[in-house]
Design brief:
alpha/beta; Rossmann fold; elongated
Length: about 500
């Protein structure tokens, strides 16, 4: 998702420089050898290639948008400039070879003529001009760039892409892209060429998203916002000509704002898949991967999108499992895994306790747990007796305490608290799912907060299911304000628990 037809014209002398033949930076290869790991300690140090400094990219004080149009305010570069100019604390400068004025601000003919040092350059010019712009950025001390232009290796113009890489590698100059949306690093940076009124921004949080597809990234941001999942940073890497998953894995591993690192992957360059898995297996934070190109037709679509080779998916999937990465099979799993692991950075064995006011909901949850490799065993007599003893008289004789605990529709807050206290101390259970039906007549809007306080005291993970409707917002917030993840479906709640089982701490 890049800018394929940026319309700014550059002088012919620059075009001539760009079209010189360059040596390919790397060749793409199939990933069928990704699982040939001979030794557990065979870790290749590839996440710090050169000495790329990402601080100017993610935390810039100044930014230049190269390629703004003086006649088309809907041009991608103009959209980016306007957002930065009006809604960002970063000082932004517009660049067009013709110079002029835009939104009352001076348009500079080149990077060289900007009166301040530039941290981040957003390059939105036609592909044939982009290498020369990158070269000029390096020459004049720019900290890094996001090349959002399209028209490179994904359409057979690898020569232009290789030219940019050649310049950048010699200078340790980090650039994102090309053929991408760039990066989102609130509150300072938003290089997505989407109008502000159409952007959906999640709240600030601790999940970093890295995606080869800009469209998938934006879609996930919408879903994050809808589910209340906080985002630390988001990066659309597109063709990942220079900066790739390994670089960003290393950066986000050290980023104090980030607790979970999630990737949407389409394919890898030569040996990248192997290196990525090995590096991710040593990461101190949960790493979640959603992989596209699982089928022959999907692989073909991946190749035409970002010039990547999807590789042998079955091999890659098995290796991720072996090395402790959390693979999301689809977008729904990605969302659930990110939410769960953003709250809990620990692993569980998978022995689950379930609390429900409805036998049917409990049965559905047990089936879902079993399907995902989780165990819902009958509680010991000792735990059952402790719970039953503390239930209110109205439900004590009709509730089932075996597991799932069916409190029935007559349950009140006190009964949920009694069941929660019992499971929070039960050594045979290492995680609890609370199925909350807010239309039950005996419960209050404070119940989520009361249950949360119990589990915060013991440290045992708990996940809640509550239908996501505005009228139930207070109940949901009672969990979320106390750092308890809430799903809008039973399946989603079970997936959150599965993520804790599949994530292996370093």
């Amino acid at each position: 998702m890049g800018v394929c037809n940026a319309s700014v014209d550059y002088p012919q002398v620059i075009l001539d420089r760009c079209l010189k033949k360059a040596t390919p930076a790397f060749s793409l290869t199939n990933l069928t050898g990704v699982c040939n790991f001979k030794e557990q300690n065979d870790i290749i140090q590839t996440t710090k290639e050169g000495s790329l400094n990402f601080q100017p990219i993610f935390k810039p004080k100044t930014m230049a948008v190269v390629g703004v149009s003086l006649s088309n305010d809907r041009h991608p570069a103009n959209v980016i400039f306007n957002k930065a100019h009006l809604r960002s604390p970063v000082k932004v400068f517009a660049v067009n070879p013709k110079g002029g004025v835009l939104q009352g601000e001076t348009v500079y003919p080149s990077i060289a003529q900007i009166p301040q040092q530039i941290d981040l350059a957003v390059i939105a010019v036609r592909a044939e001009y982009a290498p020369a712009v990158v070269e000029d950025c390096i020459k004049h001390g720019v900290g890094g760039a996001a090349v959002i232009s399209g028209g490179f290796a994904e359409v057979g113009r690898g020569d232009l892409q290789d030219r940019m890489v050649e310049y950048a590698r010699k200078a340790d100059f980090p650039f994102i892209g090309p053929n991408c949306l760039g990066l989102y690093s609130p509150p300072r940076v938003d290089t997505f060429f989407l109008p502000s009124e159409r952007m959906v921004r999640p709240e600030s949080g601790n999940v970093a998203l890295v995606s080869q597809s800009g469209g998938v990234l934006v879609d996930q941001m919408v879903k994050f916002a809808n589910e209340g999942i906080g985002l630390s940073k988001a990066v659309s890497i597109g063709n990942k000509a220079l900066v790739n998953e390994l670089h960003l894995l290393d950066y986000f591993t050290r980023d104090k704002q980030t607790k979970v690192i999630a990737f949407y992957l389409e394919g890898f360059g030569e040996n990248e898949g192997r290196k990525f898995v090995l590096a991710a297996s040593r990461c101190s934070k949960p790493v979640i991967v959603l992989k596209a190109g699982k089928t022959p037709d999907g692989s073909r679509a991946v190749s035409s999108h970002t010039a990547s080779i999807a590789g042998d998916y079955e091999v890659f999937s098995s290796v991720m499992t072996q090395y402790g990465l959390v693979e999301a099979k689809n977008e729904f799993e990605l969302l659930s895994f990110c939410e769960s692991l953003s709250y809990y950075n620990r692993s569980i064995s998978g022995s689950i306790g379930i609390i429900s006011p409805s036998g049917g909901h409990g049965a559905l949850a047990v089936d879902a747990c079993t399907a995902h490799g989780l165990m819902v065993r009958q509680l010991s007599d000792r735990v059952q007796q402790r719970i039953k003893k503390n239930l209110s008289r109205s439900v004590r004789d009709i509730a089932s305490t075996e597991n799932p605990i069916d409190l029935t529709g007559s349950a009140v807050d006190h009964d949920f608290v009694a069941a929660a206290e019992g499971l929070s101390r039960a050594r045979e259970i290492d995680c609890v799912i609370v199925l909350m039906l807010p239309y039950s007549p005996g419960i209050s809007s404070d119940l989520g907060a009361r249950i949360s306080q119990i589990f915060r005291g013991t440290g045992k993970p708990v996940v809640a299911y509550v239908p996501h409707l505005e009228k139930y917002r207070m109940l949901i917030e009672g969990f979320e304000f106390n750092r308890i993840p809430v799903s809008s479906s039973i399946e989603g709640a079970v997936l959150m628990v599965e993520a804790l089982k599949r994530s292996r701490p370093c």
